[in-house]
Amino acid sequence: MKETTEMLSINRLHEVVTDILMLARKEGADAAEAGAHSETGLGVNVRMSEIETVEFHQGQGVGITVYFGHRKGSASTNDLSHNALASSVAAACRIARYAQEDTCAGLPEERLLARDCEDLDLYHPWDITVDQAVALALSAESAALDFHDDIANSDGASVNSYSGARVLGNSLGFQHGYLSSRHSISCSVIAQQGQDMQRDDWWTVARRADELASAESIGLEAAKRSLARLGSRSLPTSQCPVIFDATIAGSLIGHLISAISGGNLYRKSSFLLDMLGKDIFPDFVHLHESPLLKGALGSAPHDSEGVAVSAKDIIRDGRLASYLLGSYSARRLGMQSTGNAGGTHNLRLDSGPLDLSELLREMQRGLLVTELLGQGVNTVTGDYSRGAAGFWVEHGEIQFPVEEITIAGNLKDMYRGLMAIGNDVERRGNLHTGSIWLREMTVAGNQ
C-alpha cells in the first residue's frame, strides 16, 4: 500500500520524539517528555461573489519538557533538524537547572499512561481543490443572498480543511501518535430593512467531508436567522425565566468545566471549591464524558500527558461526581489525574423529552437567548453578567426579537434553577447539549 504524506509525516514525528528523549538523557535529565506535530490546511473565503482569500497552511513544531528532580524546564522549536532539537533540549535543561524545586512537578504516574491505544477513526482527509472550495463557498453565500430581498449584504462564506499528525512520548516508555482531520463550511450575511441591519451566521463542521451539511443549507439557515432578528428592540428590566438556545447553552457548561478544573481548584479561584459529591444541579441532570467515541470531534486516545482516558460521569443525579485534573493539579490537591490534562473530550449533557418549541410553551413567558456578548463571568464568585440578544416569548410563542439587553445572575443559583434540557441537541463540537431552561435571571434593558 502506498504511504500517504501524512503517514510519512507521523513516522518522522516519531523519530523526532525518540531523538529528543535520547538527547535529554545525554544532557543528564532525570525525565523528559516531548510532543511533536505537523499540520496542513486549506482555507477559502469569499464575499459578495468575489474571492477574498485563499490560504494554504503548513506547519510543524515540537514542545520539550525536561525534569531534573522536581525542577522543570521547557522549550519549543519549529525546526525539526537534529541540531535544532539538540539546541532546544539543551535550552530546556539549562532552564531546569535554575528552576525552583516544585515537588508536584514531574511526569504522570506510569501506571496511568495509555497502553495499546485504539484507532478512533479521526482521520478523513478531504481531497478538495481550491476551485472546488471556492465553488462551495460561493454556493453557500449565493443561497443566502438569493433567499430574500432583505438579505442586503454579506460578511462572507468560508470553506476550511485541516489534517494533522501528533506524536507524544516520554521517558517512561510511552509513545503514541495519531492522525486527525477537521473540515467546515460557514456563512454570515446581513439583513436590512431601512436603517435596521442585523447579522447572523451558520456553519457545519465534521471530521469527514461527506458528513458536512450542504453549502446551500448553510447559506439558507444564515439568511433565515438574520431575517428573524430584524425589528429587534430592548426590554424593560425585570426578573423572568430564560432559555439558552442549544447553540449557546454549552457556554453554561463551559463555566462549570472551568470551575472544576484543577488549576482553578488548587489556586482556590473557583466558586465550586469543596463541592465534590455535593448537589449542584437538580437531580435529573447528567453530564458525562466519552473520550473514545469513534469519529467524534472531541475524541482522543489519551490526554495531553499520555494518561489513559475513559468514560466517566462529571455530574450524576445533579451531584458533582468528578473534578477534571491533570497530573500536576492532581498532586497539588492530593488526588489522582482524571485524564483531563489539556481539557475534556466529548461531553454529553443528557436531554429531556421536549424540543425547543415545547420548552417555550412550558415556559409561557420569558426570554429565549440566541447570542451572548462580552465576558462578564467571575469564576471565583460565580457572578454572571453578559450582553445578550434573542427573542421575547409570550403565551409560549416568540413575539419579537430583542437586543441591547444584559442578563445577570449567579451561576450557583442558575445551575440550581435549571428547569429542563431540550432534545434539540447541538452536536457541532466537543460538548453536546440541548437548549437549557433556567427558572429566573435578571434581564436589564434600556426601556
Pick out its properties:
single chain; 447 residues; alpha+beta; six-stranded antiparallel sheet; five-stranded mixed β-barrel; 9 helices; 17 strands
Question: Outline of this structure?
Answer:
The chain has helices at 5-26, 82-98, 130-145, 215-228, 246-259, 262-266, 327-333, 356-363, 411-416; strands at 31-47, 50-68, 71-77, 151-170, 175-193, 196-206, 238-244, 287-289, 312-316, 319-320, 347-349, 366-373, 383-394, 397-410, 418-421, 431-432, 436-444.
Can you tell me about this structure?
This protein is an alpha+beta fold. 24% of the residues lie in helices and 36% in strands. The protein is built from nine helices and 17 strands. The protein has helices spanning 5-26, 82-98, 130-145, 215-228, 246-259, 262-266, 327-333, 356-363, 411-416, and strands at residues 31-47, 50-68, 71-77, 151-170, 175-193, 196-206, 238-244, 287-289, 312-316, 319-320, 347-349, 366-373, 383-394, 397-410, 418-421, 431-432, 436-444. The strands form three sheets. A six-stranded antiparallel beta sheet has the order 3-2-1-4-5-6. The chain starts with a helix and ends with a strand. The model has no long low-confidence stretch (mean pLDDT 96).
